[in-house]
Write a structure and sequence with these properties.
Elements: H1 3-17, H2 19-35, E1 55-56, E2 70-71, H3 72-81, H4 83-86, H5 91-104, H6 108-112, H7 115-129, H8 139-163, H9 174-177, H10 180-184, H11 187-198, H12 209-224, H13 228-232, H14 234-241, E3 248-252, H15 262-266, H16 273-276, H17 293-297, E4 304-308, E5 311-315, H18 319-329, H19 334-337
Parallel strand pairs: 1-2
Antiparallel strand pairs: 3-4, 4-5
Helix pairs in contact: 1-2, 3-5, 3-8, 8-14, 11-12
Length: about 350
Amino acid sequence: MSGDGRMRVWWRARFYKRPITTLRIIFLVAIFLFLNSMLWGVPSFGELGPLRYMLLPNASCRYIANAPTNCWYYNLQEGLTSGWESGYMLVLPMVLVAGIMAVGLGRGWCGWACPFGFAQYLISRGRAWMGLQYRELPYWMVALLDHLKYAILFVMVLLAVAIGIPSLGLAIFGENLALAYCQVCPAKPFFTVLQQAVGVEPFATSLPWVAIGMLCLFLVCAFFIRMFWCRVCPIGAFLALFNRQSLFWLRKEPSKCTQCRVCLRVCPMDIEEIFVEMERENVTSPECIMCGRCVESCPEEGCLSLNYVGKELARSRSPETRREEREGRYQCPPELDGEKT
């Protein structure tokens, strides 16, 4: 079999084994290339006027040269800081965008579109290539990280609001604290280094030591903890507040669950609720990034499903169903059929 033929067989086998993950990675790659198109030799792309008003969370960092879109959180901080002068009119568009995102996608944005979600996926694949498995985090650490992002969100917003109140006299700290999140967000050094690597920015471009330290911390933590940034990201914290009410949700039929723990074992966010809950159908956790790993790994027919509004997008399938589908479409090579999930 030729190299192209083997690649097609591999992709088809992967799609049947992990259909949701395969589709999600295609989305992540496409969106990453779009949001960072200036890194691939399209510097004029970011000069298109309408796109500059696309305010998306964690999409294009404000510090990226010619970025096609704008970071929602940057503009929110800017609006809160100058709120008393502008009547908080700069904040209203941010609240509107945040509300639409929270209801329309929830944390599905984190799993299907966020550039840092894609970066963490690459890190996890690198670990798999080296034969390294993630250790299961103790419950207290999972809970600590889950709550930490809410504390970060609260502090960052509080700082911006306080600086925007003239009577507090904190305006003198505005230059450094007004955009507090941007000072510690790893996106700033991450994308600056990428720009330097491809020649979009000169290597003389300076980065604060805090930014460099945060980038190193992000890379180290992401290597040892699955989806580390998704656990502590303040933007993810805001979306998590409305995740249960999102139109994008995870459904479970408790009567079909055998509590085999597969969903918990494959979950990159270590969410126990999907495994434990045996009464409610909506098992969408605030921490769930809607990656679909539990759905495509569950061995019980129709036990778990991804849904948008009232429409089922994907559901779990039994090994027998998967085998019938696979054999009915193409003959999967034995070496791929035995690949571990």
